Amino acid sequence: MIILLRLCCLFLSSLAFEVSAAVQWNELSKSQQQILNKFQSEWENFDQHKQQQLMRGADRWLKMTPQQKDTAKQRMKRWKKMSPEQRQLVKKRLQYFRNLSPEQRHQLRNKREWFNALPDEKRKEIRQRWNNMSPQQRRILHQKYNRNLRHR
């Protein structure tokens, strides 16, 4: 029993070491280094979580098509132009989306696709109606929409 306990402790401590071990710049692939080159001077100062995030992002970038890369660049430009308040709102909406059930996320994506498929004039009209609504009217519409999502 004691041997089993010691083995478990040894195993868990080795996992803890692996999780907390930072990645050295020279351990990155050449492709990752190319994509992340603007972070090279700071790399050693990043915590392991930040390094992993950046590495996953670099790996995603490598798998993107040229069209996906263009879209990502456009989104990054928009992000950089946002005020801190706008960025906070986007983060809040993303968190809300992540907390939805898979079915609700699917329905929301379908709604977005439907909206994006509308002619420009129709989309402008819908946006104008939304912008002309009072906060109370928007809340009521939101509640009605959320109820419909739950009952499908």
Description of the molecule:
The protein has 152 residues and is mostly helical. 78% of the residues lie in helices and 0% in strands. The protein is elongated. The mean pLDDT is 86.
Helix content: over 70%
Query: What is the count of DSSP helices, taking H or I runs of 4+ residues?
Result: 8
User: Radius of gyration, rounded?
Assistant: 23 Å
> What class do helices, strands and sheet pairing give?
mainly alpha
- Our measurement of the CA-to-CA distance between the termini, rounded to an integer number of angstroms, reads 53 Å
Instruction: Report the β-strand fraction as a percent range.
Output: under 5%
Give average pLDDT, whole number. Answer: 86
Please provide the ordered H/E string of secondary-structure elements.
HHHHHHHH
Total beta-strand segments: 0
Sequence stretches where pLDDT stays below 50 over 5 or more residues = none
Biggest beta-sheet profile: none
What sort of overall outline do the alpha carbons produce when their principal axes are compared? Answer: elongated
